[in-house]
Design brief:
This protein is of the alpha+beta class. Strands 1, 2, 3, 4, 5 and 8 form a six-stranded antiparallel β-sheet that branches. The chain has a four-stranded antiparallel β-sheet with strand order 12-15-9-16, covered by helices on one side. Strands 6-7 form a two-stranded antiparallel sheet. A hairpin with a 4-residue loop joins β13 and β14. The longest helix has 19 residues. The two termini are about 25 Å apart.
């Protein structure tokens, strides 16, 4: 089993104080997509699925992620999970004004090298401006594993590529106790065509399992088939959920899109296998649910457990 990834931390600095009227990650996603398409598209009148250059186009691969009809990862689907995610680097109170903003871009597998094109898209976006106020910005820092990659406006191609390692979870020790999970950004879990405003332990774990299977299948290597949870030896308790409704306006589709999801926290109490703990760590590292390229599905957790003797 193999999944390679890299995390890049960007800092952009505005030329004047800016007030965000929506989630800044939504705006960044739009900037990157718009500027990347301008940078890469050589056939503007063609739709991406019909374009002759779609397989070699960075924009099409990152933002359209078109799958062949006979793919064996997402059966009967012609679009896949994108090979990157966006994540807020800091929590912003929308009431305040900011002179800079940090965010994270995570890339997978062969697409790690596309950070060069993404960087150029973000750099070009700064000249046209951020948000409705078109506030200009510069890219003041890009780091990977703590190493600064910027030399002036040039990006040094010296990336730290990590590999997700599940060997640390291979022992058979069970753990008992409590785990607190915090939904740091709205979580969108879709089942039978509907987005949930609540979920069970089984639904939560299966959402992580689907994310793991998809990322491994599309961008890594997965030897075994991911088994579906039928039941768990732990339960969800002390749920503190609410549903946050966000709206993203798509300039390309000329319409507003609802991007709401569950926020809050919950506790899990009971018996945890190493497989359970591995999936939880996977979700913390790679996110889960729908629309992770909008900064959604970002979680963290803390555990208070003890290992059981074999």
């Amino acid at each position: 089993m193999q999944l390679k990834y890299s995390n890049f931390i960007f800092k952009i600095s505005f030329n004047k104080l800016v007030k965000f009227n929506t989630d800044p990650v939504f705006i960044l996603r739009s900037i990157i997509g718009f500027q990347l398409r301008k940078l890469c598209c050589c056939c503007e009148k063609s739709l991406c699925p019909e374009c002759l250059f779609k397989q070699s186009c960075v924009y099409a691969n990152l933002f359209e992620t078109i799958l062949p009809k006979d793919n064996d990862v997402l059966i009967n689907q012609n679009r896949g999970a994108h090979p990157f995610l966006l994540r807020a680097g800091e929590i912003c109170d929308l009431k305040n004004r900011f002179d800079s903003y940090k965010f994270e871009i995570q890339l997978y597998g062969d697409y790690i090298s596309n950070i060069k094109e993404i960087y150029m898209a973000i750099l070009n976006g700064g000249k046209e401006g951020f948000g409705k106020t078109r506030t200009q910005y510069t890219v003041s820092s890009v780091t990977c594993a703590g190493k600064e990659l910027l030399n002036g406006e040039n990006l040094i191609p010296d990336f730290c590529i990590e590999e997700w390692n599940e060997k640390q979870f291979e022992n058979s020790s069970m753990e008992t106790g409590d785990i607190l999970v915090v939904l740091k950004s709205p979580l969108r879990i879709k089942i039978d065509g509907k987005y949930l405003n609540d979920f069970t332990a089984v639904q939560f774990m299966n959402a992580i399992q689907r994310r793991r299977k998809t990322l491994y299948g599309l961008y890594g290597f997965l030897e075994e088939q991911s088994s579906v949870y039928e039941k768990t030896d732990f339960e969800l308790c002390e749920k503190n959920f609410s549903y946050k409704e966000d709206v993203h306006y798509s300039a390309r589709q000329k319409r507003s899109m609802k991007m709401g999801g569950i926020i809050g926290n919950f506790a899990m109490h009971g018996l945890f296998s190493q497989r359970d703990l591995m999936l939880l760590e996977f979700a913390k590292t790679f996110g889960l649910g729908k629309n992770t390229i909008f900064g959604l599905g970002n979680i963290d957790y803390w555990k208070k457990t003890t290992k059981m003797e074999k």
